[in-house]
Amino acid sequence: MMIFEEKFIFFPAVYPQGIYESEQRALQPEDHWFTTEDSVKLHGWFLRSEDAMGTLLMFHGNAGNLSHRGEILRRLRLTGFNVFIFDYRGYGKSEGGPNEEGVYADGRAAAQYVTSLAGVESKRLFFLGSSLGGAVAVDVATHQPPVGMILESTFSSAQDVAAHAYPFLPNRFLLRTRFDSESKIRNLHVPLLFFHGTDDSVIPHRLGRKLFDAANSPKQFIDIIGANHNDMFLIGGETYLRQIRAFCLQLSSSLP
């Protein structure tokens, strides 16, 4: 399992896989390219919101690419905040191949790059991490803390997820990949908003709660009743968006 570990964790869709043309027509995003500290070229989309109160930096999950996030991007844009989404190395149009340290570097590069864009203030930058993207967001936040962070359908550690998914294997001894958000989040002191579906069949609700329990206040945990792993924004609907907007607006409005 150690040899093929990345194949069990990362499921990238490499361009031209995806739905780029239709989503680009619908969303009209700005295409952006930027480079990581280890010289990997990454691709991202920037969706501007008129009179934006801040910017959401989105760290997506372990499958597909940014073109598969069209529906959630359309909804997030309605919050009145800019949205920047990027593909990790090996995903979509981004170069390279994914691994734990690599996607951390990608996240750091994205956080640095987005604050260089016109209309983006670092003091009004929020992170939104979904599933594995939550682990990347937590790691990046230890280096470049956002004003607030939203974590959805995410987990305490890769070891905990492996123990759930493969209970018959000694994963704690075989797994090199850590994604140890639980230990990292103990050292973070930023406002946190958690979402987790009560029917999540991929990342058990208890692992999201375990991460929440390890986090410092201020923090809030919201159960999305009946939601599975990838339908949080659909099942949560307007309530989900309203909570994100209220969280970001409260923090952004308190800044000079």
Describe the structure.
The structure is a single chain. With 256 residues, this protein is α/β, with parallel strands linked by helices. The chain has one domain: Rossmann fold (3-Layer(aba) Sandwich), CATH 3.40.50.1820. Helices cover 38% and strands 20% of the residues. An eight-stranded mixed beta sheet has the order 2-3-6-4-7-8-9-10, sandwiched between helices. The mean pLDDT is 94.
Question: Which terms summarize this structure?
Answer:
alpha/beta, Rossmann fold, eight-stranded mixed sheet, two-stranded parallel ribbon, globular
Summarize the helices and strands and which ones pair or pack:
Elements: H1 5-9, E1 11-12, H2 20-27, E2 30-35, E3 41-47, E4 55-59, E5 63-64, H3 70-77, E6 82-86, H4 100-114, E7 125-130, H5 132-143, E8 148-152, H6 158-165, H7 171-174, H8 181-185, E9 192-197, H9 205-214, E10 219-224, H10 232-253
Parallel strand pairs: 1-5, 4-6, 4-7, 7-8, 8-9, 9-10
Antiparallel strand pairs: 2-3, 3-6
- Unreliable residue stretches: none
Write out the CATH superfamily name.
Alpha/Beta hydrolase fold, catalytic domain
Q: How much is the average pLDDT?
A: 94
User: Can you list the strand order of the major beta sheet?
Assistant: 2-3-6-4-7-8-9-10
Summarize the structure.
By secondary structure, the chain is α/β, with parallel strands linked by helices.
